[in-house]
Design goal:
176 residues, alpha+beta, 2 domains, three-stranded antiparallel sheet, two-stranded antiparallel sheet, 5 strands, rod-shaped
Length: 176
């Protein structure tokens, strides 16, 4: 179980913020411990620029915060673009799967029966939406062991007769 506790440091920090707000001061003093090597480098660098160490540290901190903000924005933008691209690719993949499933279902069709749709459907060949009450063609298949999905096609997608084959001839009796 997590307990909500308040330390004297938290109370002091809140009191400091309130005092700063009341006094109108916008800058705060931070105290921190740094290794001796870092202190010497900061002093040497500040002396070279002829600025106080406190101003140098403030400038470095401001630049570091700005750089972190820019880096965060860049990463956030890249993540958003990647997510959008992933969503687009997922939609394309889903569309390809739907087309493949429709084409596979069409492979088992041995005939088409003209029907008037009672419910909306879509054409298995061109993916056009078919409205309730619209004329369509139901693909007839042999019963399969798994649940059979109904396959509909619109009139333009209905297979046309093969002009090479004589309609009066039995296709099974044709020899090569």
């Amino acid at each position: 179980m997590i307990e909500n506790t308040t330390t004297t440091e938290d109370v002091q920090a809140v009191d400091d913020v309130r005092a700063t707000e009341l006094s109108g001061k916008k800058e705060r003093v931070l105290h921190t411990r740094v290794p001796a090597v870092l202190e010497r480098e900061l002093r040497r660098f500040a002396d070279g620029l002829r600025v106080p160490v406190s101003n140098l540290v403030r400038t470095i901190l401001e630049d570091a915060v700005k750089a972190a903000d820019v880096a965060t924005e860049n990463v956030e933008g890249k993540l958003k673009r990647a997510a959008e691209q992933l969503e687009h690719e997922r939609e394309r993949f889903g569309e390809r799967l739907r087309r493949r499933a429709s084409k596979e279902a069409l492979g088992g069709v041995f005939a088409f029966q003209a029907v008037r749709l009672a419910r909306p459907a879509h054409c298995a060949r061109c993916e056009r939406d078919l409205a309730a009450g619209e004329d369509a063609f139901l693909g007839l298949t042999n019963p399969a062991p798994e649940p059979v999905t109904r396959v509909f096609v619109c009139a333009p997608c209905l297979p046309k007769p093969d002009p090479k084959q004589d309609p009066k001839q039995d296709p099974k009796s044709v020899t090569s």
